[in-house]
Amino acid sequence: MTLTRLATAWALFQGLLLEALPFLLIGVVIAALARRFAPGGGWLRRLPSHPVWGPLSGAALGFALPACECGNVPVARRLLVGGAPVGTGLGFLFAAPVLNPIVLASTWAAFPDQPWMLLARPLGAVVLALGLSLVLRQLPETQLFRTDLLEERRLNQPLSSVSLLERRTGLVGLEAPQLPLAPPARPSWATVLHHGSREFLDLALLLVMGCTIAALVQSLLPRQWLLAVGSAPTLSILALMVLSLVVSVCSSVDAFLALGFAAQVTPGALLAFLLLGPVIDLKLVGLLGLLFRPRGLVVTAAGASLLVLLMGQWVNLWRL
Asked: How many Cα neighbours within 13 Å face the side chain of 205?
């Protein structure tokens, strides 16, 4: 790699990292506050577990949280370990990066003269979250989520749902009514700060690794190659999907990046760029690895790509 490409990669790395770190910090702070003020997660277990209403309720939570896809990972993890239904946690994870107020405002600012985009992007994000939740729920939780996440999640499940043996307490053969659980104690601020800072450092390390990979790939893969097929109905969608994986920008600013090449690509390709990146990209792989096992990551990437391709094709049929 030449010095010029190294300099380009370094500049891209700094831009990606500085863009994502504040939102990661916001997500960790929200998760830490949830640990402090709702330690037992009782309200989370009251969220709907219906295969449709569950993901939709999780997506609706995104309207109140100003974090992009990086910051949503620690919040989604806190929802899942706190006992929220799987569909609700997944719906939040996949839809909230687009439905949060910052992203909605930036999309409106970038495309004020394209009202269809102001409707298609949030609607597409909801459809994508709902579809992925329905697909991922077909996998057993032991094949979908990491072992440490499942162990912490089981601790917050009622005994009527999870046995003492599954909680790993070492007690076998006791019925639920014999051991009522006391309400969980609220952790001290020192405990919350300790867990939050450790979680932030772990996630930041994974984010640095993801930004490094994304910057190196960007510097080696010129965008002009992908934009050259911008007028082809299907190839343009596939090219912009690859571009969204590579550039790995946060959903809070990707609309302004897309504005720079909006006139060169088909409408479906433009929408595909704005939908796929917030769900999966190079910088996100490591962060999502804290939630999913490899099979879950593969199914997420494949399912999101297929759904985005189909939605992009439909938009091209409608707009071209």
From this structure: 7
Which among 236, 261, 204 has a CA at the least distance from the CA of 320?
A: 236
Are residues 165 and 123 in contact, defined by beta-carbon separation less than 8 angstroms? no
pLDDT digits (tens), the chain, 320 positions: 577 878 888 888 888 888 778 887 887 787 777 766 665 556 677 788 888 999 999 898 888 777 778 888 888 888 888 888 999 999 999 999 999 888 888 899 989 988 899 999 999 999 999 999 999 999 999 999 999 999 888 776 654 444 444 445 444 444 444 444 455 566 677 777 887 788 788 878 888 888 888 888 877 776 666 677 767 888 899 989 998 998 888 888 888 888 888 888 899 999 999 999 999 988 888 889 889 999 999 999 999 999 999 999 999 998 76
The answer to whether the CB of 218 falls within 8 A of the CB of 247 is yes
Identify the residue whose tokens are 């009522």: 180
- Helix H, strand E, coil C: the string for the chain is CCHHHHHHHHHHHHHHHHHHHHHHHHHHHHHHHHHHHCCCCHHHHCCCCCCCHHHHHHHHHHHHCCCCHHHHHHHHHHHHHCCCCHHHHHHHHHHHHHHCHHHHHHHHHHCCCCHHHHHHHHHHHHHHHHHHHHHHCCCCHHHHECHHHHHHHHHCCCCCCCCCCCCCCCCCCCCHHHCCCCCCCCCCHHHHHHHHHHHHHHHHHHHHHHHHHHHHHHHHCCHHHHHCCCCCHHHHHHHHHHHHHHHCCCCCCHHHHHHCCHHHCCHHHHHHHHHHCCCCCCCCHHHHCCCECHHHHHHHHHHHHHHHHHHHHHHHHHHC
Q: How far apart are CA 233 and CA 241, in angstroms?
A: 13
